[in-house]
Write a structure and sequence with these properties.
This protein is mainly beta. It contains no helices and eleven strands.
Length: about 120
Amino acid sequence: QVQLVESGGGLVQPGDSLRLSCAASGRAFRTYNLGWFRQAPGKARDFVAGISWSGGRTYYAESVKGRFTISRDNTKNTVYLQMNSLKPEDTAVYYCAADIDGLGPSGRYDYWGQGTQVTVSS
């Protein structure tokens, strides 16, 4: 099992940057593929970015390609989401999730964090 705790959310202006972190407990962290998802009010939860257990493969939603970067540090049991050029439509609760087998948007993601709010507004 793995437990996930997100941090780094906040209120920023359009065009600003923000880096989200997701710290995991459990020695098996490095064996999990990880993903970031987001859910805006009244909308379904959407895939944002994913990264393989080794960090060698990454996946992004079209809406964030070129602006967001997912990375992980297995020595710190942490996955990051660097978000640049933020837009108001990026406003959502952001969740990290872990999947032992699946990867990217089609993963099952058995473990989820509690989420962190990101608000982009002028």
